[in-house]
Write a structure and sequence with these properties.
Distance between the termini: 20 Å
Number of strands: 0
Number of domains: 1
Radius of gyration: 17 Å
Order of helices and strands: HHHHH
Number of helices: 5
């Protein structure tokens, strides 16, 4: 059974959604763990967001780009760009000059918007594949 090129790239959106979920989990859960375990408080200053961008940005660009070539809906690209922009701003500017709360707010917002864009991208790609399979 051969996979079509369209179907074989669906995992990219799934992986991007998974990474957004992990980022969201990290942002929401870490403060609770650190608050409950005072002996780990020195680790609260560690900054994983910037390192996660090295995976999130290329994966998102590739997944959204492949999806866009199929469905041609620029709204998905705009939503993904907005989500990535929030993530990058949170991990760089907000983290460096606006504080931890701003960093987390931008990162959580960006993760949600980016995950929604990838979900939308995946749905449109599958719909396009179903429509073109009937031709």
């Amino acid at each position: 059974m051969n996979q079509t090129p369209a179907k074989s790239t669906d995992w990219l959106d799934g992986a991007a959604i998974g990474l957004s979920g992990l980022c969201l989990l990290h942002c929401l859960a870490l403060p609770f763990f650190l608050g409950a375990l005072p002996m780990l408080m020195p680790f609260t200053e560690s900054h994983l967001h910037a390192q996660m961008l090295y995976f999130a940005v290329p994966l998102s660009v590739v997944a959204i780009g492949i999806g866009y070539t199929r469905h041609r809906d620029s709204r998905v690209v705009i939503a993904a760009f907005a989500g990535l922009s929030l993530l990058v701003f949170g991990a760089t500017v907000a983290h460096g000059s606006l504080g931890v709360i701003a960093d987390r707010l931008f990162t959580i917002s960006g993760s949600i918007v980016l995950a929604a864009a990838h979900l939308w991208n995946g749905l449109l790609s599958r719909r396009h594949r179903c429509l073109t399979a009937g031709d």
